Amino acid sequence: MSGATLLKESGPKEVFCGLTSIVWLHRRMPDAFFLVVGSRTCAHLIQSAAGVMIFAEPRFGTAILEERDLAGLADAHDELNRVVKNLLARRPEIKTLFLVGSCPSEVIKIDLSRVAENLNIELKGQVTVLNYSGSGIETTFTQGEDGALKALIPLMPKSDQKKLLLVGTLANAVEDRLVSIFNRLGIDNVESFPPRQSTELPSIGPETKVLLTQPYLTDTARELKNKGAEIIEAPFPLGVTGSTLWIQAAANSFGIDKSIVDSVLNPLISRAKKALEPHVEKLSGKKLFLLPESQLEIPLARFLSNECGMEIVEIGTPYLNRDLMKAEIDLLPPDCRIVEGQHVEKQLDRVRDSSPDLVVCGMGLANPLEAEGISTKWSIEMVFSPIHGIDQASDLAELFSRPLRRHDILNPTKTLTSN
Amino acid sequence: MELTLWTYEGPPHIGAMRIATSMKKLHYVLHAPQGDTYADLLFTMIERRGSRPPVTYTTFQARDLGGDTAELVKGHIKEAVDRFQPETLLVGESCTAELIQDQPGSLAKGMGFDIPIVSLELPAYSKKENWGGSETFYQIVRTLLKDHSKESKQTWQEEKRRPRVNLLGPTLLGFRCRDDVLEIQKLLGQYGIDVNVVAPLGASPSDIMRIPNADVNVCLYPEIAESTCIWLERNLNIPFTTTVPLGVGATQDFLNELHKVLEMEIPPSVNESNNSKLTWYSNSVDSNYLTGKRVFIFGDGTHALAAAKIASEELGFKVVGLGTYSREMARKVRPAAKALGLEALITNDYLEVEDAIKETSPELVLGTQMERHSAKRLGIPCAVISTPMHVQDVPARYSPQMGWEGANVIFDDWVHPLMMGLEEHLIGMFKHDFEFVDGHQSHLGHLGGKGNQNTSKEAIETNVQDVVTTDGNPIWTNEGERELSKIPFFVRGKVRKNTENYARQAGCREINEETLYDAKAHYKA
Ligand code: SF4
Ligand code: SF4
């Protein structure tokens, strides 16, 4: 590894729990329903994180535990069974039902896998019932997607076909673009996981080469490997360099001739670099502090320092998988400070001490920092926005240059005060 | 176990956070897992607060559960007290911590701090946000004032000073509380009444200690302050007012009540009719079209009750539905609905509310942000009157609901969407005029205008199909359908249903133009 300094911190944290992933997963797989087995807090978290996205028939909900469910366990399992059947009767279009564990369901030890198993027997394949944990005592934010994907893996059919499997939720448009680039390189068989329909799971086998699109899929990557797939080692497809290396790694593993790769990618690279220029001008030399939340922090820091010239004060990450992150850390500038875990008060002290120009943080912290005159960027935007790939590099940079530009327009000289 | 797709209220510890964040020099240690920190964004994003809520979350993890979570809690409490130096400490737990029973409140009390510690027990599996807010405010006041002497103090007359009142109940994430406080303060000032303490909003624990200096408590938001007012009356002999000054009539009643409790003479200006423009605007000739407008009301208890009164008595609307998501307020909402000839809708299920809206075919919905969404889907104008809060409910401009100015704001907020609805209707009527080119899209973007034309065409087409498919049900003839299409879109559904019912009762197999008029006469009679 490079000269990055790896530190650990513990204390009070300010991060979302894994339930939050439902906010984008339900949009990726519109034929699936996510049923959290939890409390009013869990229900309130998801609706607050989802903001105003309210639907006539939403594809997520919470089976809220009540006092009588806490009394006896057998009771809670029966109750859940009843709630699920009511739901499925009302919503015949649901093809896959995820039972999502929460802190309360785990503390009182409701066995969701048993409930799922029984329901699967009863429903005889009409609906597939799966379970995973999105609880805050086990998972942070994006780890919820890791859990959901891992739960789908046993259902993937076997195949000996040679194929490239893109793993991790991408914006549909970005996904199409990346697939078309691979096709141009001569990799014709490209599939995605999660699929756009929960029932159209890609097959998997020893000839499957997995390319991770997102850095937070630790368990999913391990399980895919156990299924015989090969995980292609690469940095993540953020920024021109990251995306280029990522595509090249796949091309190498498919034995594609370097000249073909260059001829396809070089025009994209030079166009993307040109589009980056105005943002680089804005970002270069500016100080960046990333608070831990999405696990995208390391690849983002790598892009913003290497390609946009930002100076990294600290990279916070909720969890550090040294294997999956190795290629990324190798690319970081020397002496980069990576802090795994969090003590939110101490970390905010460090933010203030280092007076950064931009802080990447969660939604709860953004306005208080803005009120102190520090520009911010919500980390949750990174999981909603189309930011992957060479063509998206300047859009990605713009997410960070815009707050700085705005700050300059509104406050040419002074800093901001609020109530 | 209850399936919930969306909830009007958060869990009770959110109510506690609303109190803690509204107040100053107070800190709340919340024993909770990391995901529960989402609650900060309610304050920093919806209210756009420039500071973090004064809350330390213990953020325990699964791996801590095997070990000594009590020690972990104590560590967080000590650190929070050292760092934030609060005057009073709140200690409580969220749903998950309630299950592991660490008793963080007792732990804190055993740590030898010299500040008051309020231990909160908020049952997360049976209670909700407003209850949690009310209980927290009550516990804070009780803890800080329980040793205060009950001896009767001198009245304002004896002390030869102006009368003083406390304004109790306003909080962050409460509906327009910030502006209501300013409005009521201004109003009372005009009558020579001073405000002693406003709480919880903006109060520090030392302000709470000054509550007994007032002659009367004004209970502005019963959801939050009623239990505290009752306790203060019983234990410190401070009477409180029960009228919430929402609307012209209620503001008058409130002033009358307050003057009486304070033993002040009621100045005639209180009951004059020109205090709020609502009264004249509502009497002016162009408000004639508001007469009998069908309005559906749903919200928290206080605002739903007030809306029903304003709608029926001050604007001349017809209330066709009234309900609340607050079980604690059901006791008050039920009789109010009954007095209007309705059965109150008490539910936390927004789909049930949406069904009730469909069922009653109102011309205006007064509800929460959720009813705004439902009304939009149904093509009915809507004004938001109640929490849960949305960033749009925290306007930059001064926009109270209470007092005379509040009544002005209410007139504008409720009548404006109706006028828009009416415009939509006119557009529908004049749709064949050349000015109304096909592309005209209203900013309301619902079923009016262009969409309206399409729906009536579709309706006719689908009904031709119905002739073949429906069995035993009366059939609409083309003239009947054409006549129906002339009826304003917002009552068309209701008229269709009524006419079909009438036709069935009368044994008509076919509905033509005449049947429509027969049905109309039948229902008017
Ligand atoms: S942290 Fe736990 S209790 Fe809180 S919302 Fe997440 S799963 Fe629910
Ligand atoms: S946009 Fe249409 S509906 Fe809205 S005010 Fe103008 S004319 Fe009226």
Question: How would you characterize the overall build of this protein?
Answer:
The complex is a heterodimer of chains A (419) and B (525). Chain A is an alpha/beta fold and 419 residues long. Helices cover 46% and strands 16% of the residues of chain A. Chain A contains 17 helices and 14 strands. Chain A has helices at residues 22-28, 40-50, 67-71, 73-90, 103-107, 112-123, 143-152, 172-185, 218-226, 239-253, 258-283, 297-306, 326-331, 344-354, 363-371, 380-384, 393-410; strands at residues 5-9, 32-38, 60-64, 96-101, 128-133, 163-167, 190-193, 208-212, 230-231, 287-290, 311-317, 337-341, 358-361, 375-378. In chain A, the strands form three sheets. A six-stranded parallel beta sheet of chain A has the order 1-12-11-10-13-14, with helices on both faces. Chain A has a four-stranded parallel beta sheet with strand order 3-2-4-5, sandwiched between helices. Chain A is globular. With 525 residues, chain B is α/β, with parallel strands linked by helices. Chain B has a five-stranded parallel beta sheet with strand order 12-11-10-13-14, sandwiched between helices. In chain B, strand 10, helix 13 (301-314) and strand 11 form a beta-alpha-beta unit. In chain B, helix 7 runs parallel beside helix 10 (222-236) and helix 20 (489-506) crosses helix 21 (513-524). The two termini of chain B are 47 Å apart. At the A-B interface, helix 2, strand 3, helix 3, helix 4 and helix 5 of A face strand 1, helix 2, helix 4, helix 5 and helix 16 of B. Bound molecules: iron/sulfur cluster (2 copies).
